[in-house]
Design a protein that fits this description.
By secondary structure, the protein is of the alpha/beta class. It contains nine helices and 18 strands. Helix 8 crosses helix 9.
Length: about 350
């Protein structure tokens, strides 16, 4: 697939800069036809014995400013050395920047990511004091404000976030409250949690002309044996597997595809680089709940792989005409696997 196949036009004003609850829902049926339903309608469609897969990752506060320079701290290499992302082009190796609370950062190595050395070791407490959540750049641009607002602290975390490690929220989950999940549980829906920590790939654009040449950045996945057995049991009974978001989808499909270490008895864990696009055969998921995604993104390729590129483009056009709100803080789409 050419990356340009995943292009579409949209008005900039449809980029959501804050959530609206309840969100609008685009429902795409087995025939690929879109319609609008309410969030309550959607919840009523998830039946007893069905499985809803959630990603319980928690977004890290890792965006630190030095004046107007933004640094995203990705990975600690040693006590004072870190992999980071920042606009390093105008800086030379050995040049330093001043960070909050008197910490100096010295550039050690260029590239994507860069390697820097801090003047002292910093703890999680340091980031809690001085860092911000890594809000997507297109939201910053649409707001004309690079810094987060106080409300982002709750807006950009899911109601069940409990395993720290992500650099972006699994945004399909932002549409649902803890009360919504409890209501589903009460009627017999099996709520299954997995963990996928959203990584560097979220921030790096696809530069390859052909998606097959794109090197996906690896992301850590963990699925307990209990979660996996619940999914397999539901599949055997003919129940539906609803996956809340592309990250939950990649998690369970990575396990089913033998890309993670482990077994049904001990669970699965490891790093995945799974790239889903048209031609991929889904092994687990048959109901996909996800946000509207940016053009030329691997996330949009995943949705096209679940449905079809033609259907996705037609449905996006339908939604844009009806002014659905787009991307991380935008509205929800639900895709039903086509009947064989």
């Amino acid at each position: 697939m050419k990356i340009t196949d995943l292009d579409f036009q949209f008005p900039e004003e449809l980029i959501a800069t804050s959530p609206v609850r309840p969100s609008r829902v685009m429902w795409v049926n087995e025939a690929g036809q879109p319609s609008e339903i309410s969030l309550q309608d959607l919840l009523s469609k998830i039946q007893p014995q069905d499985v809803l897969v959630l990603n319980n990752t928690q977004v890290l506060k890792r965006r630190v400013f030095s004046g107007d320079v933004e640094i995203l701290f990705l990975k600690q290499i040693s006590a004072t050395d870190w992999e980071v992302l920042f606009p390093s082009k105008k800086y030379k190796i050995g040049e330093s920047l001043e960070l909050p609370l008197g910490v100096a950062m010295t550039l050690q190595q260029k590239g994507r990511p860069q390697v820097v050395r801090l003047s002292e070791e910093v703890s999680e407490d340091y980031f809690q004091k001085v860092a911000e959540l890594p809000l997507p750049p297109y939201i910053q641009k649409a707001r004309n404000e690079r810094h987060t607002v106080d409300a982002d602290e709750s807006w950009y975390q899911t109601a069940w976030a409990k395993t720290p490690g992500s650099f972006a929220a699994p945004t399909a989950s932002l549409h649902f409250s803890a009360q919504d999940i409890q209501a589903l549980k009460a009627k017999g829906v099996n709520i299954v949690e997995v963990t996928l920590h959203v990584g560097l790939g979220t921030f790096l654009p696809v530069t390859a002309e052909d998606l097959n040449d794109h090197d996906m950045h690896e992301e850590y996945v963990e699925i307990s044996s209990q979660s996996w057995k619940s999914i397999l049991s539901a599949k055997e009974q003919g129940a539906h597997i609803w996956s809340l978001g592309t990250t939950s989808t990649r998690s369970v499909e990575s396990a089913a595809g033998g890309l993670l270490q482990g077994s049904p008895e001990e669970g699965y864990r490891g790093f995945t680089k799974l790239l889903i696009q048209p031609g991929y055969k889904f092994k687990i998921v048959d109901r996909l709940l996800t946000n509207f995604h940016q053009p030329q993104s691997t996330l949009l390729a995943l949705v096209a792989g679940f449905s079809s590129l033609e259907t996705v483009k037609a449905c996006y056009h339908w939604a844009i005409e009806r002014k659905f709100r787009l991307f991380s803080y935008g509205d929800l789409s639900v895709w039903i696997a086509r009947s064989e």
